[in-house]
Write a structure and sequence with these properties.
globular; disordered C terminus; Porin; five-stranded mixed sheet; twelve-stranded antiparallel sheet; Rossmann fold; mainly beta; 426 residues
Length: 426
């Protein structure tokens, strides 16, 4: 029996040696393009297998410090419901000082394949000035796929975009059954001078559960209408107003309306929003609430003035990204009714192969005016059917990643899944 295991072991060693030699030869002959641009791509939700296949004339490296060219992609939503992708090309080492920025925009009805092809093609175009300075330029040809004709575009919708969505959901167990539905309708118009958004949301759920032989039914309904109107005043200033209406059994609100005029200043020009922002937003307005049940403050309806201040900082660069916001608000009739909330997300590349990320949210809460004084049932608490009193809220997490080995990452092998991290079970 031991002789069989020895033979199997020798065969495995032979296969590993052959595989290692074959892989090394493949890397030398096919994957490592001599004198090709060493490229590092920094993007979210990129199909790297597709990119490697469509752009085979560069060397992909997995560490930004090894790269001769660094490409960072950022994304923001457009007024039409599509997305605008910005590509920042930054030369390093022998390409130091060579920088460029390109923009690609999608339409709301573009398929994932169309978007993927367009994003990759934009990166390919930006690479040409760098590839042209290497011997690899001989392997690249540029062609035009059709004749360009002038065409006058008439927008019969006048920049308005509408969206309707419904999402029913159900769950069934022996002692618990739940059905919920979410419906939404939105309309928005976004131009360089104006931003107008309207959204109507409807959420409803019914929960049936059995406990100690008794069956209970609980319904939760939420309706809301949020409206935003913003006018661009300059490269740094904006002014607008937010109007919100709604009803919520969860928040003990039969009807609420809030009107909040605001002004915002961005330390950096809005044109740099995909790269960096430091925004200061101040608003003051009026909120009116009509409650379902009497509140813990013995109110059945009330209206108060309130104000808020928010500071938000955002930056994306080759070393990582930072997103931090701090918001403070309080009711003017009683300054003890206030809330302060800090939200942050930090991603840092510490050194070669080592990256660190941390996210968190912490809030100090003293403005729950709508809390019902009706005693909550066990179901309300366990199933979170009713808002509960709290003085704070904390949420967060962190992670650290270390990658080592070959600096190159050119090979695409989709067998047994695309992850490359081990077996994928089906």
């Amino acid at each position: 029996m031991s002789g069989i295991f020895k033979k199997i072991f020798v065969i495995l060693l032979s296969l590993l040696s052959i595989q290692s030699f074959s892989q090394d030869t493949e890397i030398q002959n096919d994957s490592l393009r001599k004198n090709a641009v060493k490229l590092f791509i920094d993007c979210v939700f990129c199909d790297m297998n597709y990119i490697r296949r469509e752009i085979p004339f560069v060397n992909y490296v997995r560490d930004v410090n090894e790269a001769e060219l660094y490409i960072r992609e950022s994304m923001q939503n457009t007024g039409s419901g599509g997305r605008e992708y910005s590509y920042f090309f930054q030369g390093q080492n022998k390409f130091s000082g060579m920088q460029d920025t390109l923009v690609y925009a999608t339409r709301p009805d573009d398929t994932m394949d169309h978007t993927r092809a367009g994003r990759t093609n934009m990166m390919k175009m930006g690479l040409m000035r760098y590839v042209a300075k290497t011997p690899i330029y001989k392997e690249v040809s540029i062609r035009h796929n059709g004749q360009i004709e002038e065409e006058e575009v008439i927008d019969k919708w006048n920049n308005w975009v509408f969206e309707i969505e419904t999402r029913p959901r159900f769950e069934s167990q022996e002692s618990l059954k739940e059905f919920s539905i979410f419906n939404t309708f939105s309309a928005r118009k976004i131009t360089p001078d104006w931003k107008i958004e309207m959204e109507f949301d409807h959420r409803a759920s019914r929960t049936k559960y059995k406990y100690e032989g008794e069956e209970s039914i609980n319904d939760v309904t939420n309706l809301s209408n949020e409206n935003l109107l913003v006018k661009s005043l300059s490269k740094h200033w904006s002014a607008g107003a937010r109007i919100e209406l709604g009803t919520s059994t969860f928040s003990n609100t039969d009807f609420m309306v809030e009107f909040f005029p605001s002004v915002e200043y961005n330390l950096y020009p809005y044109s740099e929003s995909t790269h960096r922002q430091l925004r200061f937003l101040y608003g003051a307005g009026y909120a009116y609430m009509d409650y379902i049940d009497s509140t813990i403050y013995n109110q059945v309806k009330e209206g108060h003035f309130k104000h808020s201040m928010e500071v938000a900082y955002q930056i994306q660069d080759r070393w990582g990204s930072v997103n931090i916001s701090l918001e403070w608000s309080n009711y003017l009739h009683d300054f003890t009714k206030n809330r302060i909330e800090l939200d942050g997300n930090l991603n840092i590349r510490i050194t070669k192969g080592l990256s660190f990320n941390i996210r968190g949210n912490i809030a100090r809460i003293h403005d729950q005016l709508s809390l019902s004084k009706v005693e909550l049932s066990e179901a309300d608490i366990l199933l979170q059917l009713q808002e509960m009193a709290t003085g704070y809220e904390v949420d967060g997490g962190l992670g650290i990643t270390y990658t080592f080995g070959s600096i190159y990452n050119n090979i695409v092998n989709p067998r047994f899944g695309n992850g490359g991290g081990g077996f994928r079970r089906y």
